[in-house]
Structures are given as structure tokens and as C-alpha cells.
Amino acid sequence: MARIIPIIFILGLINWLGSCSSPGRPASGTYPQDPRISTPAGVPRDSATSYFPASASVNPSQDSLAKRMGDCQGEFQGASELLFRFKAPVLSNYYFGHSIYRFLWWPAFRLPVLLTLDLTESKAVLKTQCVNRYPEPMASARQVEAESRPEIERINQLKALIKTCQQVADNQERLASALSRLDYIKLSGTPLIITEKNVVLSQSQVRQFVQLLNQADFWQLPSCKPTFLLDGAYYTLEAHELQRYKVVMRHSPSEKDGFFRCCKFLLDLSPAKP
Fold first, then answer.
1. Contacts 24+ apart (CB under 8 A), 217-221
2. Could you tell me if 40 and 90 are in contact, meaning their C-beta atoms sit under 8 angstroms apart?
3. Is 205 buried (19+), middle (13-18) or exposed (0-12) by CB count in 10 A?
4. Which PROSITE patterns match (predicted)?
5. Residue 91 CA, distance from chain mean position
6. 119 burial class (0-12, 13-18, 19+ CB within 10 angstroms)?
7. Do 136 and 190 form a contact (C-beta atoms < 8 A)?
């Protein structure tokens, strides 16, 4: 019980301080407030805007092998593009007056999910945003038709081979893959739909999340840590507080990793839980 009381006090202090600061007001130099990046409300300048500080993509490893893997510029650029498609605000440029934690889950073979935890004086709300297709610019009807044509031909060929009992198992697998690609192409020509669901969290749940951040040494973690993995999922977690901002990205972190547990905790509380 003695350990919980300080955490409650800290949370209350964070929210109280946040209520005393208007959106866009300086936070001890933590936020650059650069109008070339976003408005004070967090609206990005354009689709090419980086949502993260340039320093976040630097690979700080002293290991020679890890250094040869380069930095995380491409990964953070991809995350910025997704956040823009989600119409999310830039959290690293201006302080919004209260604490916000945002988790972008970007699996290799699933649609991305965006979770945003808003901590205000009155309540804590976890917003889940899902999309009906991969969030990229909508393709024209002509593009969809042109890209669909070879896939349809391939599908018909595979169906014919299966009908004549030629390499049935292999061709069924190829057919499933071709059908999946065709669905993807067709969806690219439909409007992007972002659905939102909100869940109000209890004080206990917020305390658990803050404890997980502390246990993971979140504020001391390097933002960039390249890996050799080819697929899997990207986990990007941002923390937006009065005195500090932090982003950490990992590619398929271990389930024993404290950072993974922070992200999983939010995901388990959302409707997007796998």
C-alpha cells in the first residue's frame, strides 16, 4: 500500500500541472513548438511530416554488428505515415495540457491499430482506432483494374490446375495467396474508414500501466534498436507529459521484455485485442 500512494500522488500531480498549462504552452523546453512541423493542436504540416524527433531514429548501440544495421529512419518514417493516415496529432512538438500515451501496433500480416490513452483531470480514456484497409492513398478505379487483371488471370490458372488434380496442395496455397492479394487490391480503391471505440479506465488500471512503464525503465530505453527480423510486428509507444516526451520503437520485442508488457497491457484493454 505504501508503494501505491506515491504513484497516485504523482499521477494527480501530473494531471494538476497539465490542467494549469494550456495546449501549446512551453513545457520547460521539452517541446520545440516548431510551426513547420505542426500546429499547436498537433495537426501535421503535410503527409511528409515526421511525427518524431530526428534523434529518435539514431542507433545508439556501441556494438559493431548492431551499428552496421544502420538507424531506424525508415521505420519511424513508416510510423509517421501511418499516424498521418489515422489523422493523429503530432505529440512531440507542442504540449497539449495533459498526459497522453499512444501505442501504434503495426503487425506484418494484419491491419495496424492505434491506441491512445488520454489522462485528464476527470477520467482516463483509452481510444482504439482501427481501419478497414491498409491506410494508404486511395487508388483510382483504373489502377485497381490494371492491378487486378494479372491476379485474376493467375487465379483462373490455379483453379484450372487444381481441377485437373495437379499439385493440389501447393496450388491451393498459391490460390489463397492470390485471392488475398486481389482482395487487397480491391480494398485499395475503397474509401479509408477509421472506426473508433473508447474505453474508460479505472484508477487502478492507470496505476498498473504507470508501474509497467517504470518497471520497463521506459524513459531510459533507446528509441531505436534495429533487429534482423524480416517480419513480425512493430511496436511504437509514445509518452507525452508536461516535462518530457519519449518514443520507443521495437520490432517484435520478446514477451518477457518490460516494454512489450507495457504495450500488451494497453492492447489487452482495447477491443482490438488479438
1. 217/258, 218/246, 218/248, 218/258, 218/259, 218/262, 219/244, 219/246, 221/248, 221/259
2. no
3. middle
4. PROKAR_LIPOPROTEIN
5. 13
6. buried
7. no
Alpha carbon distance 252, 229 (integer Å): 8
Taking only the tens of pLDDT, the chain with its 274 residues reads 333 334 433 444 444 334 444 444 544 468 999 999 999 999 999 999 999 999 999 998 877 766 777 889 999 999 999 999 999 999 999 999 999 999 999 998 789 999 999 999 899 999 999 999 888 888 899 999 999 999 999 999 999 999 998 888 898 999 999 998 888 899 888 888 999 999 999 999 999 999 999 999 999 999 999 887 667 899 999 999 999 999 999 999 999 999 999 999 999 999 988 7
Look at the block and give the residue holding cell 500512494: 5
User: Residue 90: exposed, middle, or buried by beta-carbon count in 10 A (0-12, 13-18, 19+)?
Assistant: buried
In total, the chain counts a number of residues equal to: 274
What values do phi and psi take at 7, rounded to 5? -65, -40
- Cell 506515491 belongs to residue: 6
User: Could you give the CA distance from residue 159 to residue 171 in angstroms, rounded to a whole number?
Assistant: 8
